[in-house]
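One such given next:

>
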Amino acid sequence: MAKKNQPYSEIIDLQKELKEYKKLCRGKKSKFKYYLDWKEHITENLLKLDDNDKKENFLHYLINRKRGSGVAKSIYMPLILSVIALYVNNIVNTSTENKYGIAANVIALVIFILLIIFFVVKDSFGYHDDYCFYCDTIEILEEIMYGKKSHTPDPLTETL
């Protein structure tokens, strides 16, 4: 089901389309065999935005979603590093009254760090998929609105 604040959710459900996009990109069973099949499907849905104002509003919405798709990852690392720093500080300050105190804390810290690495790496790939989904959808909508982009020559590889 589309988010309540998503404009034109009756035309295209971005959450559902993102799930299909992730399946396609990761080589999992998807209702689309190739990228171009998915692109055709998205194009058909976006063509239902019947006037330029709707297209422009939806384009702006997609651009904002793309900007936000990397925010969580940028918050993750400082938060995780802060928790690790606090935990290491706790290990250093742990009294040695308990014969397992420091060893148990070090083992717990190693397990904690491994779990964090696993979830951060796993989530990083997910955010990358989100970002690519929004980039591709924006590109498709811009092609509909403005036509194919003209080829801009690369000054390093081509001569004018």
